[in-house]
Specification:
With 421 residues, the chain is α+β, with helices and mostly antiparallel strands. The protein contains 9 helices and 23 strands. A hairpin with a 2-residue loop joins strand 4 and strand 5 (109-111). The longest helix is centred in the C-terminal third of the chain and has 19 residues, at 400-418.
Length: 421
């Protein structure tokens, strides 16, 4: 497919359709040399580099962990755009109104797994970089980097940066507009309680959503399912169970009732912390399960730069002495914060305002993007305020008009960034 400056929508939708058609869910059973995350992600990488070569980019492959497409003058210093080609599973196909691995266009909307997270925005940024090369003076090349493990381990970025330098600055098209200059720190951890003879709990073990379906001692309650970074959007199945049946003599339910249920910000746990720009901590229960020798409660904690993982873990260890639980950290990511007066922020604000004719403000999100792995990077689109693209959910979607507007914003931003000395 050849690049055509006058066929923006046609180019972008055709390329996005090719990527969406590939089931690029992590599959370690099919991993092999140069395909560490499985054949599906390998196919998506090959598709991406084929599109990029057709549009005139220099391309590279980092052992199948990531690929990149670069355009402009050849220089070790470059502007970075970091996105990803892996997607989450489609889930229950009966809940989809169309094939998740076919780009379906209906009533001005695009549907398909990855159309918003992150294949559509990644292609928009790639096209924008080519448009800048076509129309502007560039002092620095633009490198569009596509990883293969954003939805899982992020080892793709670790491997990439072991072999390649950091961008001078850049963004990830895997968030929201106007500008996400703050991303909450994240801790997944497990509270381990002693086994209680008359207590049996069962729920799905997962790390992306709230616990929305729980069975305790044969009694089941449900709630709406939300991403774990937004616990305030649900009433939560475990809270509903306690409200309906009480907690009796159960140690783990009393702990939830006393320490977690009062609010979503960790006040009961003593870990709440507020930052003027980033906001409050959030605490979400992921699962509760009885095991052979103990009962385990998994939590997702998001926190601003006004506190730290060490402070939070130490406080929970202290509480564990009173409530008889042990703390086992499972996974963590440090927070991201780029000051609003940074040159990167100014360039992105100007680009957004040029296209949208409205003020660009900075926001903080609970989610994580590849912006965290850059020394100077933020998440920048492609979801506009007021939109709900349903990433990770059935019928993931993206308005065609929004994808085109995002492309125009990326053109303006990359034009400014690549012209810097």
């Amino acid at each position: 497919m050849k690049f055509n400056i006058d066929k923006k929508e046609e180019n972008i939708l055709c390329a996005t359709a090719k990527l969406v058609s590939i089931n690029s869910v992590r599959d370690l059973e099919t991993r092999e040399e140069n395909a560490p995350f499985g054949k599906g992600i390998r196919r998506a990488m090959d598709c991406f580099t084929s599109i990029a070569k057709g549009w005139g980019f220099r391309v590279g492959d980092v052992d199948g962990y990531a690929v990149y497409a670069e355009i402009g003058p050849e220089n070790n210093e470059h502007i970075g755009v970091l996105g990803h080609l892996d997607v989450v599973e489609a889930g229950d196909l009966n809940l989809w109104h169309s094939d998740p691995f076919h780009l379906d266009r209906r009533n001005g909307m695009l549907y398909g797994r990855g159309v918003n997270d992150d294949k559509g925005p990644l292609i928009a940024a790639l096209w924008a970089a080519r448009a800048v090369y076509e129309t502007s003076e560039m002092n620095l090349p633009i490198r569009v980097i596509a990883g293969g493990a954003e939805e899982t381990t992020w080892e793709c970025m670790t491997h990439y940066f072991e072999h390649h330098p950091q961008p001078v600055m850049g963004f990830s098209p895997d968030g929201n507009f106007p500008i996400v200059n703050g991303e909450m720190g994240m801790i997944h951890l497990r509270l381990i309680f002693p086994k209680e003879p008359d207590f049996k709990a069962k729920s799905e073990v997962q790390f992306s959503y709230n616990c929305s379906d729980i069975t305790i001692n044969g009694l089941r309650t449900k709630s709406n399912k939300v991403l774990s970074r937004n616990p305030q959007r649900s009433d939560h199945a475990i809270f509903n169970w306690i409200n309906q049946y009480g907690f009796g003599g159960s140690l783990v339910l009393r702990t939830i009732h006393d320490l977690i249920q009062p609010d979503y910000h960790g006040k009961g746990l003593g870990i709440d912390s507020f930052h003027e720009e980033m906001g409050n901590c959030n605490v979400c229960i992921l699962s509760l399960n009885s095991q052979d020798d103990d009962t385990v409660l998994d939590l997702d904690i998001r926190y601003p730069i006004s506190t730290s993982e060490e402070i939070i873990i130490n406080q929970l260890i202290k509480l564990g002495e009173s409530y008889q639980f042990e703390v086992m950290p499972l996974k963590s990511r440090k927070p991201l914060y780029v000051a609003s007066d940074h040159p990167l922020i100014k360039a992105l604000k100007d680009a957004y305002q040029t296209v949208m004719h409205e003020e660009a403000h900075c926001i903080t999100k609970g989610g994580a993007s590849y912006a965290r792995v850059m020394s100077a990077g933020v998440a920048f689109g492609a979801t506009f305020e007021g939109e709900d693209p349903q990433p990770h959910m059935p019928n993931e979607k993206m308005p065609v008009a929004s994808l085109m507007k995002a492309t125009d914003i990326y053109i303006e931003s990359l034009k400014t960034l690549s012209s810097s000395q």
